[in-house]
Amino acid sequence: MTVLSAKANSHSSSIPLASRLRRFLRVAGDMLYGATIYEMVRDVRKERGQVERLFVLLVFGDLLGVPVLPPYYTLRLLPYVLPNIATWQRSMLREKDLTDLCDQEIT
After folding, report:
1. For residue 66, which of 61, 74, 85, 98 is within the disulfide window of CB 3.0 to 4.6 Å?
2. What is the CA radius of gyration of the chain?
3. Strand, coil or helix: what is 68?
4. In which region does residue 95 sit, left (phi positive, over 0), alpha (psi from -120 to 50) or beta (all else)?
């Protein structure tokens, strides 16, 4: 019986107290983040994506048939936007329905 209790004590003492405390604080911080500002951060990121798609539409609308800016400025901005063009085209050309407008979670 003392061998089993010694094994149990050695297992719990193998993880230092500081490591357990750090893990507890990280978990508590994640819970606090999720309970307070997670939804706000998610909405801000979604809004940022919409503004970014609008900007790319204004600058590179001619790829979809909407000429807005002269080609000179488009070519100057092309190196900065090139990595995002494929995902932008896919997001602009995908079909949207009524459920996309009401993206709020029901709680």
Report:
1. 61
2. 26
3. coil
4. beta
